[in-house]
Amino acid sequence: MAAHLTILQMNDSHGYLEPHPELFYTAGSPVYRTVGGYARIASLIRDARDERPGRVLAFDCGDTIHGTYPAVQSEGEALVPVLNALGFDAMTAHWEFAYGPDQFQNVAKGLDYPVLAENCYDDATGDPVFPPYTVCETDDLMVGVIGIAATIVDKVMPDSFSEGIHFSLGDTELPGHIAHLREEEGVDLVVVVSHLGFPQEARLARETDGIDILLSGHTHNRLFEPAVVNDTVIIQSGCHGSFLGRLDLEVENRRVKRFDHDLITVGEEIPPHLEVEEMIEGIMEPHREYLSRVVGETRTGLNRNTVLEATMDNLLLQALIDATGSEMAFSNGWRYGAPVPPGPVTMNDLWNIIPVNPPVSTVEIVGRELRVMMEENLERTFSCDPYRQMGGYVKRCMGVSLYCKIENPAGFRIQELFAGGRRLDPDAVYHVAFITGQGVPQEYGTDRTDLDITAIEALERYLSGGPARAELSGSVTAI
Hints:
Layout lengths: L2 E8 L9 E5 L6 E5 L2 H14 L4 E5 L8 H5 L6 H7 L3 E2 L9 H10 L9 E3 L10 E5 L4 E7 L16 E3 L6 H11 L4 E6 L3 H10 L5 E3 L11 E3 L2 E4 L7 E10 L2 E11 L8 H11 L3 H4 L2 E5 L12 H14 L3 E4 L11 E4 H7 L5 E8 H16 L13 E3 L1 E5 L9 E6 L2 E2 L5 E7 L10 E9 H9 L12 E3 L1
Parallel strand pairs: 1-4, 4-5, 8-10, 10-11, 11-13, 17-24, 21-26
Antiparallel strand pairs: 1-14, 2-3, 6-9, 7-8, 12-13, 14-15, 16-18, 17-20, 19-24, 19-25, 21-22, 22-23
Helix pairs in contact: 1-3, 1-7, 9-12
């Protein structure tokens, strides 16, 4: 006899407690719509559980307690009661480690559900830092749930994220956990809650038998239809809490016989859960006056939805050059940051653009180093081996013009590279602005100097000069 299960997925919400602008693609120009908010997500989860009592599981793929002002200022703690009210069954992690492993473990202890990470280990003992799996029981089924945290935490993120811990990819450990859950725990289904990123997870599913459902995170894909790889159903549900993924499963003989999927837009038509909305208002109220202050205007819609270059980062880079007088600037290719439509820019928008608010820095970098740095970044973004892809989008650049062949092998993607309007001189020294700890890795350049101005101060100062424009300029072009 068939059993039924509904799985709900949130991934990469990045601390967006409240409704916010999001970019939506159309047959013409993209449009901005107000969506999201944990109170609406709470309503969707509650309604699903009311509809199918005892047959609903909800999971969070991570990047949850970091990314907005109240999240960062409280080191994730402000979100704990809200997340408990949403009632997830398990989660895994990535930016959660930004506060340091000890603080993340403190936050995790406050959650009513487990943080799972089969691939996170203590340096001193070699023991897992978090449980690798849990078993969830519904009215009809026993479901084994395995968590895989972002493997890049100790590879490309600041050292403080992984102090005392290290991460594997998780592919080696996974078959053993699946076998244990199937054979020893007797589960009916195996669900993997992952933050590796869709390319890596598709390969992982192809190489690993026995995964029924893989809930994907990290790469902010809006999968309107599931990917089915080696009989594994994979979904990913956008970012910023703008979407919630829903899978309705029919299970027979410990296998998925049939499934229906819905990528739910968390739109304004969804009534907020009143209790959760009150909790969020309590978190936000002390910051309302400060965050709502208008600091300028943008004539360009600001977003990070494009891989090679993004308008949001062009604004940031312009502010860095303005603050330092440098000839070029670099920042990370972050994916997160709710869009800012053309119009007023508030302090809240600035903190969404760069929530860690590090100091602005400068460095002297030789032309040949600059080329190597960009080749390394292109490989980390576009490696033909998904397991070698390490992070977000292409490094954001201003003051250079780079033309690349994405399909080329590592080290041979750059076709042309110009700086200051001239072909890059491999022996020339360039004065570069960046954000401390982000944009120019430590191994590149000399004479690093941290300035007495933060990224948000630089943005605020730049916007005070009048309405800003930050259109795409072709700093990185695929040819």
